[in-house]
Amino acid sequence: MSTGNPRATLAAACVVGPLMTLVVTGPSVAVPDIGADLHSSLAAAQWVVDGYMLTASSSLAAMGSLADRVGHRRMFTWGMAFFAFWMAVSGLSNSILLLDVSRAISGFGSGAALASITAIVAQAFDGPARAKAFGLFGTFLGAGLAFGPMFGGVLVNLWGWRSVFLVLAGVAALVLLSTPLLPRTEPNRGPRFDWAGTFAFGLGIALFVLALVEGPGRGWTDPIVLASAVGCLVLLVTFVAVERRSEHPMFDLGLFARPQFLAVCLVPLVLAFSFVALVIVLPPYLTSTSGLSAVRIGLVLLLLTGPSLVMPAITGVLAQKVSQRALFVILLAFSGVGAAWLTLVEPGASTVALAGPLLFLGIGYGISLGILDGAAVSAVEPDRMGMAAGMFNTVRLTSDAVSMAGLGALVTALTKSALDNDAVSAFQGGADALTSRALQGGLTEAAETLPAGEVRDRAVTAMADAYASGLHTTMWIVAAACAVTAVVVGSLLKGGKPSADAAGDGGAEVAAESSAAAPEPASAR
User: Distance between CA 39 and CA 429 in Å, rounded?
Assistant: First the structure.
């Protein structure tokens, strides 16, 4: 193995990390403009974000295993080049179909690059230096998450939605210049790759997301939606059967029988709905109900994402004296209170009114960033940490993909059910068409097609009220889920001890090891 240049390696990682979060949070602010420019349906616009998350999350474990076999630097180079090319195609797309397809394909490149770069960082540093490197890497990840919406908003405001994708493509191309400085490792063939399990899991989740995204528009009894749901069920049952029989499974399902590991995997599932999906759902809501610009929305969302910059460090200090169980319950309590508080915020509310609930939701998620990875690997023996980290990160990213589609579908369905159809009957295309435009952030533009006066005012008010009702009901469901999960996790971790191993000084190195091992689940098996 060539050692490469450690500083160049860390610099590349600190660019790639936030880049892979910006590619989700940045375009989320651009969705309203994309929908209006390309005249897309609500479901098609949702796929701009959902398609990318789906392929990136489902391919992460597979790409990590393939990187072991072809070499991490080589896989990183291929992944970044692939990602840059398809992001450029996204920025130049003249149809929503091409945009959705190119975004989805770019997710494979993202999975390959992210899986490889963490392993490369682990190879470039040892001992305390590795812990510090991964700590810096995590900080930059948090920065990408925190400033992604504002980044997207500024670009949309200056040069339009296409600039978001083209700038990301340009940054990825520049990162490629650093690849000769990265350490090179010899391919490690290892055990046979679990193709059957990987295919069944990835396609099963894809069909589930397809049903969630298309259900509100087509109807839940539509043949495509039903076929997707049935196909998902069959494939996931097949996945479980394959994993139980495989000598080298993608997932060791037996780990879920361990209370601590199960608890750790339940937390990000709930947080995906209380935080990750909100980053996608809130921009069109704020555009339609409050008339905020993309830049203003980016600034408002800093209240939600900003705590990700500071809470992991604070959590590291608290973890020296507080148990994992207590920290999990606290972060779920913050998330639950934030979700419930958001239901009290009416359409057109000021930034001050939004500050409280968004900060609570952000604090809950920020605490999780400081403890979850370490808790996942501390739940198993040292020789199984790679597998545990790979499983946990796959569960976390899959939860993110499903939550984005699921929360959007739920808000859409509840908004339609709360809408007074008579109030919007004058709109061309009726209530369904106006709902579709509103949930893409285009309520104001859509209403301008109506005659000025009472008819338009009634339509806008009715739509805004229905939209708010849909979001509020959804947040009550999320708050209830947080409360139930807090009870379940508290029970699973009963008798827990201080969590320093997960997030303290010693835990920083464990977390670093888990991050390094995350892309290599197969090799650990």
Answer: 14
Helix (H) or strand (E) holding 351: helix 351-369
> Which string of b and e fits 105-123 if b means at least 16 CB within 10 Å?
bbbbbbbbbbbbbbbbbbb
Contacts of 165 (CB under 8 A, 6+ apart): 27, 87, 88, 90, 91
Instruction: Find, among 296, 355, 294, 307, the residue nearest to 155 by Cα.
Output: 294
Q: Residue type at 213?
A: V
Q: Are 107 and 202 in contact (CB under 8 A)?
A: no
Other beta carbons within 10 angstroms of residue 494's beta carbon come to 9
pLDDT, residue 524, reads 35
Report yes or no: 51 and 103 within 8 Å, Cβ to Cβ: yes
pLDDT of 514 > 60? The answer is no
Q: What six digits make up the tokens of 503?
A: 């997030």
Tokens 């091992």 correspond to: 517
* Bigger pLDDT: 452 vs 172: 172
Q: How far apart are CA 309 and CA 421, in angstroms?
A: 44
More confident residue, 98 or 11: 98
Does residue 22 contact residue 145 with C-beta atoms inside 8 Å?
no
pLDDT at 278: 85
pLDDT of residue 479: 95
322: which 2 tokens? Answer: 């507080």
Statement: the pTM of the whole predicted model exceeds 0.90: no
Return the bridge partners of 498, or none.
323
Is residue 168 within 8 A of residue 20, CB to CB? The reply is: no
CA distance 20 to 56: 10
Q: Is the sign of the CA dihedral 394, 397, 399, 405 positive or negative?
A: negative
